[in-house]
């Protein structure tokens, strides 16, 4: 049985939860949010966080989704790794 890997999407998305990471292809940050039903109306697209453990330490990567979707900076749409946690904060405006 092949080992299954997961990532989590939490915060201001329509269907937060834990998702299977497909073995045959990688999943990007935007794809993970789409898998979680997309953003809620209260989501802060400027401060999405990806939290991961790398070489024993915790790393937090901040991504401005608008850079990807509005400024066409596709390199900021990072590829998720197993056990990554995507957190979409609430906007206060």
Number of strands: 5
Portion in strands = 25-35%
N/C terminus separation: 48 Å
Overall average pLDDT: 94
Largest sheet: 5 strands, mixed
Unreliable residue stretches: none
Sketch the topology as an H/E string, one letter per element: EEHEEHE
Radius of gyration: 13 Å
Tally of helical segments: 2
Structural class: alpha+beta
Shape annotation: globular
Keywords:
93 residues; alpha+beta; 5-stranded mixed sheet; 2 helices; globular
Structure in words:
The protein contains 2 helices and 5 strands; from the N terminus they run E-E-H-E-E-H-E. It is α+β, with helices and mostly antiparallel strands. A 5-stranded mixed sheet has the order 2-1-5-3-4, with helices on one face. A hairpin with a 2-residue loop joins strand 3 (48-54) and strand 4. The N and C termini lie far apart (48 Å). The model has no long low-confidence stretch (mean pLDDT 94).
Layout of SSEs?
Blueprint: E1 5-11, E2 17-21, H1 29-35, E3 48-54, E4 57-63, H2 65-69, E5 85-88
Parallel strand pairs: 1-5
Antiparallel strand pairs: 1-2, 3-4, 3-5
What's this model, at a glance?
The protein is an alpha+beta fold and 93 residues long.
């Amino acid at each position: 049985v092949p080992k299954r890997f997961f990532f989590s999407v939490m915060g201001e998305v329509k269907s937060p939860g834990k998702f299977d990471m497909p073995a045959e292809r990688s999943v990007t940050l935007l794809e993970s949010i789409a898998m979680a039903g997309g953003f809620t109306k209260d989501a802060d697209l400027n401060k999405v966080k990806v939290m991961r453990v790398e070489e024993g330490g915790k790393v937090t990567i901040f991504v401005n989704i608008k850079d990807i979707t509005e400024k066409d900076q596709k390199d900021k749409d990072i590829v998720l790794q197993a056990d990554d946690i995507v957190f979409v904060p609430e906007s206060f405006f």
